[in-house]
Specification:
alpha/beta; about 15% strand; 2 domains; Amidase signature (AS) enzymes; Rossmann fold; three-stranded mixed sheet; elongated
Length: about 450
């Protein structure tokens, strides 16, 4: 849920067919396909026969909307239409239908062909990326979609629901295609949507007018349509205008020692250094070793983790644009591979040095998390007792007379004792609960 700044719990703006009311904490801005391939000369849109004047003119108002939503603390989601380099996710009908039209003299290049900005609508190419003026911040969600709509064959539904989003402000290109398709998809999935008139455009002015009219036709069949300025005015109480000048805090930023992601994220944005968190945790860990020495199988040294924290700080210097897991400390149980480090599964005869890190490890590292080490587990991760390990038996954080249990015993203790925030495994995260820190 976004920490909206200075806004009331509910905001209403002028719109068609009647005022659009949205809760800022549950509202996201959706910026559709503001890619070079659709906006810049020589891209896929121009090859389609599109007049670029309107879509290029929509960049400035979309930037105003984006900055207002950022300053107000709303969640931001960007989408990009494109395909895997192999085109395995591109239906043949999409690939050849237009080029196969009788007498075709326009569609001489199709998706995947090389254009002026690389292969057309192919992920990773220069033309596939978002224009410079609207580049996403590290903390914002980017959805790569293979179709016109944003919900088909993507993770956007999961990401919106995980953030508690119920309402969408929608902008982007083109109005007649991906913009309106996405609003219709979102409507079918229960989201309340409002398209922002000046922050969307297409290749044909009459198509834009018709598309917006259809959205709000019959008293809001698919959603709402609103002009930009009333929305900017409504968001202005939440804006944090600095005119480019920032003032250092007069006192060191405070941190209450909690390791839940929300508390740490807030503290980091207020200036807390990951270096201070690492040193605090290692003091805490060394103290907890006396309580339970069986938590760890392999722990990184304090200096190695401090160096990792420095790299994270260098990678993400802008505290206004931090990835979701910036500075979040984590462990993995020793059945998860980390490149260059031995994986034992608590069974030393079967140990090996991993040549590649597990994807779950890579994902949290990419989002700015800080790795502390590997923790104990039931041998081969197959048991439920947590007692079968040559590295010792961990006990409950609540009682040294009870086991922690489970094949992830060390992970449970490292999180439960507030030694780390999370421990990734497969497709999930074990998170800390908001309880007083360990002393």
């Amino acid at each position: 849920m976004a920490p909206t700044k200075g806004l009331p719990s509910s905001v209403s703006i002028e719109a068609k067919p009647y005022p659009f009311t949205f809760p800022p904490k549950h509202t996201a801005l959706l910026v559709i396909d503001m890619q070079r391939d659709f906006i810049s000369p020589g891209g896929f849109g121009e090859i389609q026969g599109g007049n670029l004047e309107a879509v290029q003119a929509s960049v400035a108002p979309t930037k105003m909307l984006l900055e207002a939503c950022r300053n107000a603390g709303l969640q931001i989601v960007h989408t990009r239409e494109g395909h895997e380099p192999s085109l395995a996710d591109c239906p043949s009908s999409k690939l050849v239908r237009q080029a196969a039209a009788p007498g075709n003299t326009q569609h001489m290049k199709v998706i995947g062909d090389r254009g002026e900005m690389g292969r057309l609508l192919v992920r990773g190419e220069y033309g596939h990326d978002i224009v410079d003026e609207l580049q996403p911040l590290a903390s914002e969600v980017v959805i790569d979609k293979p179709g016109k709509g944003s919900f088909w064959n993507t993770s956007i539904m999961h990401k919106l629901k995980a953030r508690g989003i119920t309402h969408l402000l929608v902008s982007g290109v083109t109005t007649e295609c991906c913009f309106s398709t996405t609003i219709r998809e979102a409507n079918d999935r229960g989201f309340e949507c409002c398209g922002i008139t000046q922050s969307t455009a297409g290749y044909n002015a009459s198509f834009k007018t018709a598309s917006l009219d259809m959205i709000c036709w019959s008293q809001g069949l698919f959603g709402f349509v609103a002009p930009l300025q009333p929305l900017l005015d409504a968001l202005s109480p939440g804006q944090n205008v600095t005119n480019g000048v920032t003032t250092p805090p007069q006192t060191p930023p405070t941190w209450d020692g909690r390791l839940d992601i929300g508390s740490l994220a807030k503290a980091y944005k207020n200036g807390l250094s990951p270096l201070g968190v690492v040193n605090t945790l290692y003091d805490r860990i060394e103290k907890y070793d006396k309580t339970d020495p069986a938590v760890w199988i392999r722990r990184e040294s304090r200096e190695a983790v401090l160096q990792s924290a420095r790299r994270v700080m260098e990678a993400f210097p802008d505290r206004r644009s931090l990835p979701p897991l910036f500075g979040i400390p984590f462990t993995v149980k020793d059945s998860i591979d980390v490149q260059g480090i031995e994986t034992t599964t608590a069974c030393p005869p079967l140990a090996f040095v991993a040549t590649k890190s597990a994807r779950c490890y890579q994902k949290v590292i990419e989002q700015g998390a800080i790795y502390l080490g590997k923790v104990n587990l039931d041998q081969l991760a197959t048991g439920l007792s947590g007692c079968r390990s040559p590295y010792g038996v961990t006990h409950s954080v609540f009682s040294d007379e009870h086991i922690s249990g489970g094949s992830s015993s060390g992970s449970c203790v490292s999180v439960g004792a507030d030694l780390v925030s999370i421990r990734p495994f497969n497709r999930a995260l074990v998170l800390t609960h908001p309880r007083p820190p360990f002393h």
